[in-house]
Write a sequence for this structure.
């Protein structure tokens, strides 16, 4: 063989070797739980305003996909798929078709509490299709309750911000090494379901170990990521992970062991420049925590001539303390704010460890509205509300109307402080109902009355749109 031919043959052999090493990874965002008792029980008028579906791209899966991008990765958003076509095939068929098409070596699913059962259904279909495919569970619920995944259809559980650990898992599988060598995971083998021990590497998923999401993976569902009657789709990004507060009902600070991770301003600017979406929702627990950071970020947004519409979660007390900052943000694109009012009563705020005061709600509403910000205020209703409590909340919400308002049911999410406080009073352990739209505890009012009151609350708001 002459030398160019020999060289070409070597290249081909090398390429075959490299390609054959690649693992086929399928990452799935499961469907939403359909359980929504508030919606089911509401009047036709109220139904229009109640959340039927929350829309948003799966940012966690994009991060995971980025960590293993040298492999053959497919991200599949089932929420997006059912939004594109509500009559699409049922879960079992949709997953079986996906498996036939992609023939993956590994299937990973991102899981929040209310989507646990659909996720397990996905794993069951995978194992039935081919027991050799490795199934990996990740996401918030795996972090809070890893033992819920002690099931033969789940091979590996990767709790926490585990992109790099997932990468290690893939490497171990590729090299046919024992998973015992990967720290920070739970896995099922002949010894049963067990933990490999804490990872020795300290990860900072917002700085040193931040992975820039590649939104191209979600192009198929782009049109479905539209909110509030606006045809423009929105994307999510995070400027921080975790939360410095510790509300008793919230999963976020528990998920992060009370740690708070902040991105670099320049990394955010780079991401914003790359994003070809006009609407950007910050996926932070609270976007304004570090005042200096936010000021700097918005100075840089102005300097770089970045023109986007921003959506953020901002606390009422933060707005009252920093009205000038809210004005500055509004001038530079902040258009929608989501605020957890939670309660109009100080004693309830105290019980929830909200570390804010009820009187600040009214002041915050004025600050946001004065800056033409569309405010979504969310109240949580405890199951022991009686008619007088509902009446008092209605009166308060009516005299403090916001553009969009949300009224959900205080729910003991597994892994939270509130769950520990309430666990003996829980009467419904069906996790598909753990999405704040169903009461899983005994209500003081007869159920029908409770839900009737809940539905009526959703009529109290200024705007006519839904977000
Ligand atoms: C974006 C978001 C959504 C999006 C998209 C979620 C999705 N997967 O499709 C949308 C808008 C659809 C959504 C919907 C809901 N959400 Co939501 N959402 C969020 C939010 C704001 C940010 C999540 C996020 O992107 N974080 C950043 C990414 C990078 O982190 P991550 O997703 O955790 O992923 C990391 C790890 O978990 C892990 N990981 C994740 N997946 C996987 C998979 C594998 C294989 C591996 C290895 C690792 C891994 O690695 C990732 C990278 O580090 C959080 C609040 C918050 N600030 O955290 C609430 C939150 C997750 N949502 C929550 C809830 C309750 C809901 C709803 C049920 C109802 C509601 N009232 O909001 C609905 C569900 C559906 C419905 N009925 O419509 C709760 C979950 C509570 C719980 N214990 O389950 C949270 C924590 C809000 C809260 N304060 O309570 N949500």
């Amino acid at each position: 063989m002459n030398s160019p031919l020999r060289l070409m043959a070597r290249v081909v052999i090398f390429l075959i070797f490299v390609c054959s090493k690649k693992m086929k990874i399928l990452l799935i965002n499961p469907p939403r739980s359909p359980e929504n008792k508030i919606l089911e029980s509401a009047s036709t008028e109220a139904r229009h305003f109640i959340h039927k579906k929350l829309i948003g791209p799966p940012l966690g899966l994009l991060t995971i996909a980025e960590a293993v991008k040298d492999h053959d990765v497919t991200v599949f958003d089932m929420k997006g798929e059912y939004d594109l076509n509500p009559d699409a095939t049922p879960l079992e068929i949709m997953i079986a078709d996906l498996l036939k098409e992609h023939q993956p070596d590994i299937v990973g699913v991102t899981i929040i509490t209310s989507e646990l059962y659909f996720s397990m259904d996905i794993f069951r279909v995978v194992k039935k299709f081919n027991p050799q495919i490795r199934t990996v569970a990740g996401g918030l619920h795996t972090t809070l309750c890893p033992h819920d995944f002690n099931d033969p259809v789940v091979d590996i559980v990767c709790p926490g911000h585990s992109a790099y650990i997932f990468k290690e898992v893939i490497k171990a599988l590729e090299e046919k090494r024992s998973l015992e060598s990967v720290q920070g995971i739970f896995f099922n083998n002949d010894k049963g379901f067990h933990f490999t021990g804490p990872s020795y590497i300290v990860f900072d998923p917002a700085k040193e170990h931040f992975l820039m999401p590649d939104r191209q993976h979600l192009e198929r569902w782009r049109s479905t990521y539209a909110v509030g009657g606006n045809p423009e789709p929105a994307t999510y990004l995070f400027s921080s992970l975790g939360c410095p507060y510790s509300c008793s009902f919230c999963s976020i600070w528990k998920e992060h062991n009370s740690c708070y991770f902040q991105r670099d301003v320049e990394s955010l600017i780079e991401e914003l420049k790359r994003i070809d979406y006009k609407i950007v929702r910050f996926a932070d627990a609270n976007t304004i925590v570090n005042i200096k950071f936010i000021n700097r970020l918005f100075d840089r947004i102005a300097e770089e001539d970045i023109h986007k519409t921003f959506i953020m979660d901002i606390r009422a007390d933060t707005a009252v303390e920093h009205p000038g900052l809210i004005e500055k943000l509004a001038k530079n694109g902040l258009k929608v704010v989501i605020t957890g009012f939670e309660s109009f009563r100080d004693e309830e705020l105290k019980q929830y460890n909200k570390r804010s005061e009820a009187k600040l709600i009214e002041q915050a509403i004025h600050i946001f509205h004065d800056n033409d910000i569309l405010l979504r205020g969310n109240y949580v209703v405890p199951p022991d509300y009686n008619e007088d409590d509902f009446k008092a909340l209605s009166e308060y919400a009516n005299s403090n109307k916001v553009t969009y308002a949300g009224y959900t049911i205080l729910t003991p999410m597994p892994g939270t402080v509130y769950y520990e406080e309430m666990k003996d009073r829980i009467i419904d352990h069906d996790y598909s109902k753990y999405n704040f739209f169903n009461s899983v505890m005994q209500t003081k009012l007869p159920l029908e009355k409770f839900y009737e009151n809940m539905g009526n609350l959703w009529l109290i708001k200024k705007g006519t749109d839904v977000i």
In short: DSSP finds 19 helices and 15 strands in the chain. The chain has a mean pLDDT of 94. The longest helix spans residues 3-21. The chain has two domains: 3-30+57-195, 225-457.
